[in-house]
Structures are given as structure tokens and as C-alpha cells.
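Quick illustration for those who missed Monday's session on complexes.
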Amino acid sequence: MLKIKNLHASVDGKEILRGINLEVKAGEVHAIMGPNGSGKSTLASVIAGKEEFEVTEGSIELYGEDLEDISPEERAHKGVFLSFQYPVEIPGVSVTNFMKTAINESRKAKGLEDMPAKEMLKLIREKSELLEIDRKFLSRSLNEGFSGGEKKRNEIFQMAMLEPKVAILDETDSGLDIDALRIVANGVNKLKSKDNAVILITHYQRLLEYIVPDFVHVLHNGKIVKSGGKELALELEDKGYDWLKQEATV
Ligand SMILES: Nc1ncnc2c1ncn2[C@@H]1O[C@H](COP(=O)(O)OP(=O)(O)OP(=O)(O)O)[C@@H](O)[C@H]1O
Ligand SMILES: [Mg+2]
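Prediction with magnesium ion bound:
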């Protein structure tokens, strides 16, 4: 579903991604690992279409369609979801109301009417039960005073409601405690299906014990220097990244 070919991207004239090739098929979970500053978050931003990055070479295709001229909003409507896409605090707008708006925006883009209130309530109920989200949480003001774990819960809830085709989760926050890791892991495992795919950016081998990836890729200096199965994550845990850096420069 997602095909990235020889992707090069820069910010302020500085090249950060230097020829990424990656194919993600429906039903797969890909983990992206790699040292700080290797370009993981940049890759996520470029897939989502964030405008501060310039694609200088290569392409990203979703279901065979080149995303080059497609805005971040349209990409989202086509099923690309990036965690932390909406980190804004919106005082006075509840988690539920924000979600209603997001869903109806997405329907409007597809030429559909607003979702009937009854159907919306049912969907919210179903998804919040699936993810064990407390009623009280749904009426809280978006991101206002959210703890790290609550932010995660909100993100996973957004993902559950929007049912993306490709979900990119950037778990760079070193402050995630075991509960937050579990929220992410449970959410991903429950929402994963044969029709969607997950790209999970993480430093945590521990997270990959809960969400078992089909592929693990190591990014270094803007390139994927190694790909493998889930055992690669264990090897990295054991050996660190230095051996790969050496391989990459040879
Ligand atoms: N908006 C920006 N302006 C300037 N430089 C940037 C910008 N975004 C990223 N970079 C640079 O690009 C490089 C890659 O950053 P990126 O955030 O993609 O790394 P990362 O692999 O996600 O690292 P971490 O593991 O620390 O999250 C870094 O050198 C960073 O400073
Ligand atoms: Mg990052």
C-alpha cells in the first residue's frame, strides 16, 4: 500500500533523508529504530506531508498514487495517520467534540454528509470500550493538562476513530512509563487488521515485546542501513548501533 522509493528530503537546504526505500504492505507492522538524529521523525513528517521538509528526489506512493502534490490534510483523509499530528491544547473543546469534528471533516472531504449523532455516539462508545477509555476522559478538554499517558490514550483513541490505512506512531518520548507503553501496545494490537499497516518508530525493545513487528529497519544518517525480522531489535538491544554505523560507512 505504501511504497517509498529513493526518498531524499531536506530542511533549510540540509539533506536529512538520503535515499530511503521502504515498502509497507497491508497487514504489516514495521518498526523503525536508529540512533538519535538519524532521521526517523523526519521520515514520519515527510510521509505525512509536513511542509517544512522538501522532497528533493524519489517518491512516496499510497495505493499507487504519488503523494507529491497532496497536502497533509488530504493525505490524512486518504488514510495516513501520524501520532502527534494534533498536539494542540484546545481549552473548552472536549476530546469527544474534537473527534466528532475530525470525523465529519474527513467525511466532508469524501463528499459524505455529517455522521448522524446516534451513529457517532455508537462509534465513540464502541471504540472507547475497546480501548478501555474512561467516560470522564472523553469529556476532558483536549490535551489541556494531559499527562504523558493521557496524551497517548488520546492519540490511540484518534487512531481508533479515524481508522487509518497507515498509522505512523513516533514513540520518541523517553518519558513514557510502562502504562503509556501498554496503552500504545494494546491499542495497536486491537486496531491492527489485514487492511491496515503500522509504522512504529521506537527506541524501546520493550514496546516490541508487546507489538511484534514483521520487519525492523535501522535508520542511520538518513538511510536504512539494515532490515530484518523482530530478532533484529533484540540484536540491537544487545549490541547497540555502533556495529551498523561501521557497516554503513564501508
Ligand atoms: N525542522 C528542522 N530544522 C532543522 N533541522 C532539523 C529539523 N527537523 C529535523 N532536523 C534535523 O534532522 C536530523 C534528523 O532529525 P530527526 O528528528 O528526524 O531524528 P530522529 O531519528 O527522529 O531522532 P530521535 O531519536 O532523537 O527522535 C537532526 O540532525 C535534526 O537536527
Ligand atoms: Mg524523533
